[in-house]
């Protein structure tokens, strides 16, 4: 609908433009040639200057107007103060106008900041239009349609797709800090697994579904689909936050809605736009580990410090010889990180889109190719490449056809394909394994010795029975291919029913999608060797095979799971929108939809049944004089998950808005300072049927496994009479019903002094009927599965605000600044738990849903005397172990002493700010993003040095308690060769503040002067260099703070990128 | 025209869809399995019977609480994670938050016994609905499930002391008040279990007719033997007038442990033992002797091999109750390591350097068990007047006369020589032999050599015994190694065998008398005779430093206790015996000792070194009820110390 609004304005100018062109063609066919052959135009235009004296003489000013998307067609170019003398730009963005040197030219276009430029002595004035963030959403996309921005009563944030452009093939990476109301963070940088987590206004449910509903062209899609969207293809990107905005999606809207529409073709000649980017990515930060000699020394210390009689794993001789670098095969010191990982990866991204059309049909066709590579090293020893290589192909085609003047047919085809090759284990696993591999037990591989000159396989190193990790072998032993495809076809009919009733429109939409994925692994089983018969005097040694039977030289093969699913969706809408006179505006909407999803590999009978929703939703709006707006919505939605009596839920909402600045009294000074002021309020109910877990449905039926192998028993003299047992995986409960969210939202929109826009929303959300496991079921009841009920309640509260400033100056310099912040809190309101009357700090009520409970660590124990005379902790606690606070004072540190510690694990504050500025052909933008009020824990179990051969982190080497250095506040307590139950308990000791601020993106771009590009038939070429995650400010130094507890996984990437965008 | 048509079609669409709303969402077809289906026919009901059996704790295997105690040492220095949960309790202690081998909640290696009891109750409630079940089957199955219900209660009772009794299931929707049940006093729990066992025994068959499909199912002999065990447990000092637990009183003021000793409990136990023994005899159960003539073995070797064959000759005539599952592989969890193959992997020593992959050899006997076995004269080595006890750690050379027990000419400690046959059958020591595993000539057995660098010793790589000793008792001599894999001759774990019952009877009988009578000696001597030893009277009179010891009640009690520990060594009985005799902190506390496995020469090797100090406190006797359970049910009393 937004498109229509533009076209209304456009069409007038189009006619004018056609008129001008017709006249030109008739009067001078030669001069009109350039319209057919754009390559010659600048030559011609420059000779066309009318020279008649100096100041008082009008001259022909020419130039090209460009927008970020390419040449801007239909831009009005007028002389300041004399609007009658205007022209509009042509197909290729050119214009020519007669003007005095004292005149100023005003360039204006819908959705762009107007620019005023003094003519002076110039004869060629090229202009880069800059999007006007406030103007862009003069029309706001709402559920099942669009509304004029001023009439919107609900909380909807719209973001310019351009802002989502980051040097990454994953759109979700760009979300954090860009959109008020969205909490987002990224935990891993592995290609294909680097989706950010995102939540609209945080997490307000402790059910399983907390992620928002994602709608792309009205069709429900997954986070994966969102991640693959190309900003180039997006026409609008909005998030719907409050009840009024989401009530129509009653069944699934409780967690908020992300709504995207894709671009459609515009009438005009074909516009081709190509963008190519090449980027270099490397980990933002590498986890540092101690050198092998220190590792051995401290491992020995770890054993002795716990047990003076303990057996030392490394002899003094081994340590000394390793340090001296003698015979690295016998005394290996392997830098596994370096063996496996490169410093950087090079990635490519190409995007092509073509749009255009005539009066009958319009098209938008886009294709994308992205290639992301991993940072794994490829060794020439294998002819196969096991580095991560993820190729993504996207194709999108949107065709609009006008069948009659009132009937439009739209078909949308969209397909995404992934082809992946990578290591069997996956990247994150290899990063994890490197951290859990002993650096001194064996080298990654042995060179062939005399006995094995003819051996064809790699002689991988290992120890004992070959069950130690050798991540190098894991990387080299094979590779995994996977392919996924997702195809979507959509058919839509828009019928204007004005002949029936003015303002009535009807839309029917049918869409279906198919998803499939499979993977195949090809691998050999590595041959492992260990060193045997080392003779210290001669230095001779032989290799001893560890697994001669198991190892294979030939490749083996393993098929992974195949996933197939289908989705169909049907929707009809009836839309009414009409103004009566000057004062009254009435609108209405009725939507009926049905959704059906089938999973081909569901794994159980109940899950193989279709997932279905259906519903009837409606909206009524009334606007009076552009000042008062009222809106009511309802959703009457059904879900197949519930028993017959709970199958449908009713979700109403109401809202209103008051545009104060349109009132009569709003005039004079105040209207100058605050030209726009609007207040909004909504309240309503939204539902969520995704309760329990993705696979748990039909709570009204019990679920029984009639063939449970874990309940089998065997009789018989030959141990052969075995029968599988029967188990209950769920007991029936007819009363399980919808989870509901009661949302209240208060909003304020204002514009200050014509350049500052401010948008603030305050909300409260009360979740009820959250499905949870009943708390009072003791083991003695003997149930095999815990009964559940809709008894949980949670409350979410917060503020989201955004602000932007834009200003352009007469010399062509422009600047835009923007900032937004989201503050989302949550708390348990009702949570069934044990009776904590005596230990109220154990109760969750009143705490955030992301709260962690653990011990309060005071410091490390000074000595054994203190250990003995302190409250009793885990057995085996010694000096240098963590001392916990005895909260209830019973002389015993146990579960009862765990209190709420730290901030929630989901950040409560996400913010971002940045600016864009440009002067003539150059532009620079910079964006900072951060989060705050988040805690995470460095996992003491997975970083515990020496346990299961875990590597020693450099920071632990530098700061740990030892008998010689009794640092009571050392980072790591007394060393231990085994996991210390005392020290690995969740406590404040390993708690970290997750807050950080980072320079998320920087982009410097320049448009190549058109006189250079014209000859190549290029209307506009922009070169840019950008970077992502270049700087991070945080108190936490071990790894990238955004990865939080996942720090030993595949690191988040820092990207340097070069791009070229060409428009023909 | 087109427009009009479109309009009407669409309007029609909307209304037809609305009318079919409820059908569209009602997608669950009929006949989706519910619990009702489990009792619709005999086949499904039999599966449910197997379900009831499936909660049987993994007796004898890696997750058996009774494998710990002071018999077996298992520390794995390397990164192996096998389900030796019991050892974690022994070395690290238990906890209330996430208890190890939590049979109360079915986590951390344990089966969920309360769920087992629940399922037994479901079976008992519903078995009448199975239309095609014949009456005699219904009666028998019902009796079996009643037995299991009683046994699960008893298993919990042994670990946790007085427990709640769940005779009937509460509904799923029970209120918090309804589910807050109480622990019942010891005597009531025992009374309930015994009552249920009696009920079951009445309807159980004496013997199994169809051995191919039914061996392992509960018989009358099993029910009566378990009843004897239950009553012995109730009569033993841990539960009979134990004033250590005087403070265990619940919020109704009910005393959970009886505070006065009731001697008549021993009489009930005695009678139950006798009744069980008679029933076993009636069912054809008798003491097993190993006599495979085709091997042409000397009597000495036969007595040695017999020790492991009593356990590992499958379903032999001494077995009262045995079990083994079909599941051979598995990761950590209650279902893993369930076959005899798994146990053999844990216990067999490396005897050939080419065996590499499969042996773990991590369950090894403690020095205490090595010293516990009698001398060749059938009396404790510390009592034997002819045994050089004080110099037992000094070196000696194996004389040729000992050739069936040890390698002649090998230098070893005196401790390893002149011991009873059960010692050589139960434990593999440095310098000893290992019969079977492919070598069936008694003159060419596998030599066990466990000094540093030797095949069964600590080397550069591979696994070895930390104590240098190996358990020989838990393997069948017919198992073999082929290349690097162990091909097992399968056997069942004997949960209950006749020798156990004989010794229980002797114990109970002795307790009821002022001084032991001939019948007491008779039942102990039956075991000794089978093991190749003289009777108690003869042995003590002739060889003991305390020749009168067997004549008084206390002395005979000691002798019976020791006989039990030797005869049933490594068979999971000592752990419960020590507890019920109220000796556990005294026995389980202390340093584990071993030969110095880092010694390559005899002089270096035969030095005693401490492995680790085991701390076993009073609180470790009764296991912790999970903390969460107490939060939910305030009527439960936690066991002392937790």
Structural features, described:
The complex is a heterodimer of chains A (1064) and B (642). Chain A has 1064 residues and is mostly beta strands. In chain A, the strands form 11 sheets. Chain A has a 22-stranded antiparallel beta barrel. Chain A has a 5-stranded mixed β-sheet with strand order 11-16-17-14-15. In chain A, strands 1, 2, 5 and 8 form a 4-stranded mixed β-sheet that branches. In chain A, β21 and β22 form a beta hairpin. In chain A, α7 (292-306) packs antiparallel against α8 (316-324). Chain A is globular, with a radius of gyration of 33 Å. Chain B has 642 residues and is mainly α. Chain B is 39% helix and 7% strand. Chain B contains 23 helices and 14 strands. In chain B, α8 runs antiparallel to α10 and α11 (264-282) packs antiparallel against α16 (498-512). Chain B is globular. At the A-B interface, β32, β36 and β37 of A face α1, α2, α3, α5 and α9 of B.
Instruction: Enumerate the spans of chain B where pLDDT stays under 50 for 5 or more consecutive residues.
Output: 77-81, 329-336
For the termini of chain A, the CA-CA separation is 27 Å
- Give the DSSP E fraction of chain B (strand runs of 2 or more residues): 5-15%
Query: Low-confidence parts of chain A, pLDDT < 50 over ≥5 residues?
Result: 5-13, 15-54
How many E strands of chain A?
A: 52
Overall pLDDT score of chain A: 86
Q: Structural class from helices and strands of chain B?
A: mainly alpha
Largest β sheet strand count, sense and barrel closure of chain A: 22 strands, antiparallel, barrel
Any idea what the shape of chain A is? globular
The percent of residues in helical segments of chain B reads: 25-40%
Percent helix among the residues of chain A?
10-25%
Portion of residues in beta strands of chain A equals: 35-45%
Query: What is the tally of helical segments of chain A?
Result: 16
Give the helix tally of chain B: 23
Annotation, overall tally of beta strands of chain B: 14
Query: Which strand order spans the largest sheet of chain B, edge to edge or round the barrel?
Result: 1-3
| Oligomeric nature of the chains | heterodimer
Major sheet summary line of chain B = 2 strands, antiparallel
Pair of chains with the largest interface and how many residues each contributes: A-B, 95 and 102 residues
